Structure formats: structure tokens, C-alpha cells
Amino acid sequence: MTAPRILVLGAHPDDADLKAGGTASKWRRLGYEVKLVSVTDGGAGHQTHHGPDLTRRRRDEAQAAGAVIGAAYDVLDHPDGALLPTLEARGKLIRLIRGFHPDLILTHRPNDYHPDHRYTSVLVQDAAYMITVPAVCPDAPHLEANPVILYFSDDFRKPAPFTPDVIVDIGDELSRMMDMLHCHASQFYEWLPYNGGYAADVPVDAAARRSWLEERIRRRLRPLADRWRSQLLSTYGEDHGRRIEYVEAFEASEYGAALDAAVRARLFPFVPTATQVVEERAGPEWPDVRVDD
Ligand SMILES: [Zn+2]
């Protein structure tokens, strides 16, 4: 069986790695094919630079971030801040998905503060079934079946809070994920601090910046493991589950293929199945007393 193919569709250059960079790194270590995509050109993401200079810079940053894990990071040319779920955009996405023929697509949920995130999600939903219909975009060979579609985690609560179907321990990958995020200098050291009112906090020195960013990212990710601790305990077992500090979580979309046990085991071989956890618990090496929790 060939290695699974994973397509991560974010709205902006940095969304894919920010929301799924740790898991993408795990997939690449296993030899899975991973393509990261920004659906917009990133041309609205700066306080002083605009136009082709900025889009070129963001494309270079994205490619450098993808190179960290040996993955392509494509930046499409829809204008940043002005993405609409048009038929033209749907057709472009259908062709992109068919060309890559993924087993799994990751993207935003359709409820989100940013219209580009919302419409990226809507475009994926709109493409989901149409990729299997030969008469739609007949110049691109259709897919026999839908891939699995999973949503990135978020904090939005209406109309329904994010409910994880898969939670991945990314503790071992955090350093590589930071190497990816560090590539997006225009965002993490310039635009986002300016927009968020903390530009004065950004260190000048490159090494100090990376440490500063890593602490911000750690602070942001840390509460997630506690939010889903009971699921982590039942998935990873008591011992491992309690020690997990950093996770990425994904929610299944009803518009993709079913995430049944066999599919889940193939796509997420690094997440234990319930059976493995039971076996681990019953194993002879399981100590009677844990003192390190
Ligand atoms: Zn974004």
C-alpha cells in the first residue's frame, strides 16, 4: 500500500503550520507525502509592505517553512483579505485536490473570525463531493472517492464548539514546528505584534526572537492538552496521557470519507488505538506504582 497523502489547506501562509505543523512533521518522519497550501497570497498581512513585494516575501517564507519538514508549501494567488467562495475559486481548488489526490485534507472550520478562514473552509466543503463528479472540471481527472476531511482546532463556541475526533501528542515535534514558524518573520515578528499591540516586546536579535516566539507559542498551546485531558488519558493511557503537554487536535467533517478505525490507524499511526492502550496497561513492564506523574 502506498504512503498516505496529506493536504493541509490554510487560508494564509502560516495557518497550515500553525494549526498542524507538529502533526505534519510526524507524517514526514514516516515518509507520508505532505503538501501545505495557503489559499490566499498573504498580501494583506503587513502594516507597511503591500503588493508584490509582500506576496513574494510570504511565498519565500512559506517555502522555507515547508523545507524544514521536506514538504511543498504552495501559496495560491487569491487576494488576502478578499477571498470569496466563487465558482472560479471552487474550480481551482477542485483541480488542486484532484492533482494531489490526498487521503486526508485538513482545513479551518467554517465558523471563524476571519472571512478568509471561513471561505477556505466553505470552498473545501463545496469541493468535497464535486471532486468525484467527472462532469465537473472535466479537464482534471476526477477522484474515485472523497478523502477524509478534518478541521483544525479553534476556540469559537457558536454555533458549536470544536469537538476533537483525533488528538496528537506533538511534544516531540515542537522544536521542528518552531523552526517552521520562525520562517514567517513578516508575521510573527512584524505584522502580528503590530496588529496585536505588542511590537515593542519583539527582540531584535534572531536567536532571542526565536526563544521569545517559542515561549508565546508554548503559552498558547499549553491549555489545549488540559482542555482535552480526559480524552488524552483514554487514548494514550494514564501514564503517557498525564504527561502530554502539547497537542494538535482535529474534528472530522461530515462531508469527507468516514474516519473509521482502520482509516484512523493508517492516517494517525502515532496515535494509539484503544486496543493498544489496553495491551500497554496489561503488559508485564507496567509498574505497580507511578511516582513521576
Ligand atoms: Zn489565517
From the structure above, extract its key features:
293 residues; alpha/beta; Rossmann fold; 7-stranded mixed beta sheet; 11 helices; 46% helix; 14% strand; globular; binds zinc ion
Give your account of this protein's structure:
The protein has 293 residues and is an alpha/beta fold. It has one domain: 3-Layer(aba) Sandwich (Rossmann fold), CATH 3.40.50.10320. Helix content is 46%, strand content 14%. The chain has eleven helices and seven strands. Zinc ion binds next to loops. The site of zinc ion has 5 residues, from loops.
* Structural category: alpha/beta
Named once each, the bound ligands are: zinc ion
Helical content class: 40-55%
Q: Roughly how many Å is the radius of gyration?
A: 20 Å
Strand order of the largest sheet: 3-2-1-4-5-7-6
Summary?
The protein has 293 residues and is of the alpha/beta class. The chain has one domain: Rossmann fold, CATH 3.40.50.10320.
